[in-house]
Amino acid sequence: MQNQPFTFQLPKDANPPSVWDNHITRRLSSMKGQYLDQAAYEAMLAQDDTLLYEVYEIQRPHVVGEFLQGVSIVHPGKVGDEYFMTKGHYHEVLETGEVYYCLKGQGMMVMETPEGDWCVQEFRPGEVLYVLPRWAHRSVNTSRDEDLVFFFAYPGNAGHNYGTIERQGFRKLVIEQNGQPAIVDNPRWKQG
Ligand code: S6P
Ligand code: ZN
Question: What is the CATH number of the domain that holds 165?
């Protein structure tokens, strides 16, 4: 870990940043129960445990005052009509936000709060997306054939709560309808 201020470059293509410590890969098998079309999910998994997304993290202490930074790459594809997406999470320390900067591709950030608010924002290359404290977030790649690549930075003490989303899902899904991305209610969303 660096003990001096440092610089790094962000990728112009789907390459890692010039500095990173951990490479996390998430495959289809880690998304059990998350996609609406369970039959399509099982059929796809029987063929191949497809790589859905990757995260390159720069390691820093998980403490107040630090920022955890890195680059995520969500690959293109669908399970049934639902686009490839990240697991999504609340921060364990709910009152911590996150800054995203879209480098490449097209997609959407699906967000919601424990109070019942929801919001979907588009990812556009060159744009910053700010996830407010208290908002769970999931990144969705709505492109047919291009990676969605973004930089992120969030407080070192934030932590991740995946369990709530694993149990209840997000209120909204992003699916392909008539060849276009559409935001629809998640019929399987449940409180708690
Ligand atoms: C971390 C931040 C991102 C995600 C990454 C993968 O707070 O939101 O680095 O970790 O995009 O998503 P997930 O939901 O699998 O952690
Ligand atoms: Zn986060």
Answer: 2.60.120.10
